[in-house]
Recover the amino acids of this structure.
């Protein structure tokens, strides 16, 4: 396992947002965490990347316990976080944003190589190198945020809702590129998503998060076929057999 | 970050330079470099031990803290160096430069040239160097700076180091014409207020800001009781921060975190 969370608990003041989550991400895989608004997806990623500290539990990355470390230290170990809502540097140019992604690196030649590769994944960025990031469209900003994370040459990517606010076509494109990054570079990826359709189709393994707890986990194929997921996350309740009364239906994990 | 103690850092820089050059007899250039370095280190430590604790507090807390620090700096400078204005010897004191019909004293010429060089150096630093761009990045989106692995706390301290070092340069340039005394920082606060009122990064804004402050001071001197003239720059500045924190001609749209 490249990344392993063991019984992690994280609080916002008195509010317990993550209630003992354990999950594992094997090297070279894409793992998805599904959950509705407020389930705690963002909080999990923040806890991993060190922006928040867990109250309890262990976070082991590449054999080291990284819980409670500073974000820049976690980052230097090879974990790059693409935050929710494309947090770019609005008044820096696209190329400066990308170069900031390589802030902790010194190897110029390989930084240049990675820049080429990012422009290859996202040709839209290559055409806008000197433009201010604030002038990009939402989708382009999402690409910039992912590209910036790649510039750190990480061992693993944390993606927070890459589909947020994008058109279905763009969501599809972004996930195709995520798959390419995974296949071509063997990049390990942990992606959290509300869009269960896309996330399940493009990942290998999935966890379902509700109210800060993991309620289910399995391979994405099995999750896609599970009746609970179909009803509550894929919105396929219309296809249920007739006569099943709505109020009788309970999630099996409750 | 809004720093009301900038003028007082300038005053400290001038006093350190007077001490090193006037009292210890160091060569002028060496004394200048050492003073700038000393203030830069002081600025770094000031952030690391004092200002870092208010990071993330409302802007107003920071403003109050820096105003308080300014008072402390002036009091300490008064204790250490006394309140009598001191002259600042420079290699160019008393000489003047003749360009055609125009005669400019070297002191004023040094201020002009020094400011110009400082602007160019700072511009190149912020536009071209990795650290300079990282400082811009951190001020534009602190969270994202964390995410890309910029050591945000150290960057803040370095910003303070630069800002204190620049203040020292300003103090040393100004010292020959204004004399060195604990209250000399009030000039700095005016320039700074002008920049805030106008909006950082906007030259016309800063000019207009300076004009507003100049006028307000004159009126305060005439129509208000004694003491208000000195305070009017503070008053306008605080008013501006409350009413229009982005400045009259803001270029920087702040992201609300
Ligand atoms: N800054 C905060 N202060 C207090 N509580 C918070 C804060 N941020 C999030 N929470 C709470 O923590 C819980 C988990 O939030 P989190 O942002 O992790 O959810 P999420 O799964 O990412 O949701 P979304 O899909 O809307 O992004 C929620 O109940 C939320 O109200
Ligand atoms: Mg979220």
């Amino acid at each position: 396992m490249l990344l392993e969370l063991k019984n992690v608990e994280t609080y916002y003041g008195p509010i317990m947002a993550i209630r003992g989550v354990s999950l594992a991400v094997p090297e070279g895989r894409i793992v998805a965490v599904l959950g509705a608004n407020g389930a705690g997806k963002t909080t999990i990623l923040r806890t991993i990347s060190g922006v928040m500290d867990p109250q309890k539990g262990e976070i082991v990355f590449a054999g080291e316990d990284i819980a409670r470390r500073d974000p820049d230290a976690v980052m230097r170990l090879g974990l790059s976080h693409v935050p929710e809502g494309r947090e770019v540097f609005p008044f820096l140019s696209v190329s400066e944003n990308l170069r900031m992604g390589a802030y902790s690196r010194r190897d110029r030649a390989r930084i240049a190589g990675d820049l080429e590769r990012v422009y290859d994944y996202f040709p839209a960025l290559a055409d806008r190198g000197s433009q201010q990031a604030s002038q990009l469209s939402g989708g382009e900003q999402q690409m910039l945020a992912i590209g910036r994370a790649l510039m750190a040459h990480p061992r693993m990517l944390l993606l927070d809702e890459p589909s947020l606010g994008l058109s279905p076509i763009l969501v599809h494109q972004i996930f195709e590129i995520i798959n390419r990054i995974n296949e071509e570079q063997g990049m390990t990826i942990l992606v959290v998503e509300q869009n269960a359709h896309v996330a399940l189709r493009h990942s290998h393994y999935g966890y379902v998060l509700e109210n800060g707890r993991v309620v289910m986990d399995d391979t994405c194929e099995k999750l896609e076929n599970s009746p609970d997921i179909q009803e509550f996350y894929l919105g396929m309740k219309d296809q249920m057999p007739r006569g099943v009364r709505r109020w009788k239906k309970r999630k099996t994990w409750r | 970050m809004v720093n009301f103690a900038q003028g007082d850092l300038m005053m400290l820089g001038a006093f350190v330079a007077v001490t090193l050059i006037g009292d210890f007899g160091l060569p002028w250039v060496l004394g200048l470099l050492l003073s700038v370095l000393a203030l830069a280190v002081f600025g770094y430590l000031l952030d690391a031990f004092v200002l870092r604790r208010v990071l993330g507090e409302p802007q107003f807390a920071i403003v109050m803290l820096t105003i308080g620090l300014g008072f402390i700096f002036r009091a300490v400078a008064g204790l250490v160096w006394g309140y009598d204005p001191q002259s600042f010897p420079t290699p160019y004191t008393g000489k003047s430069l003749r360009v055609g019909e125009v005669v400019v004293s070297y002191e004023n010429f040094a201020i002009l040239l020094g400011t110009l060089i400082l602007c160019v150096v700072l511009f190149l630093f912020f536009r071209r160097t990795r650290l300079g761009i990282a400082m811009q990045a951190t001020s534009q989106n602190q969270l994202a700076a964390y995410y890309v692995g910029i050591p945000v706390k150290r960057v803040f301290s370095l910003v303070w180091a630069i800002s204190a070092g620049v203040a020292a340069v300003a103090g040393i340039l100004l010292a020959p014409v204004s004399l060195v005394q604990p209250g000399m920082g009030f000039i700095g606060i005016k320039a700074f207020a002008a920049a805030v009122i106008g909006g950082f990064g906007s030259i016309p804004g800063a000019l207009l800001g300076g004009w507003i402050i100049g006028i307000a001071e004159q009126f305060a001197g005439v129509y208000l009781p004694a003491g208000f003239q000195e305070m009017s720059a503070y008053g306008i500045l605080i008013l501006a921060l409350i009413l229009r924190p982005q400045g009259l001609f803001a270029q920087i749209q702040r992201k609300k975190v």
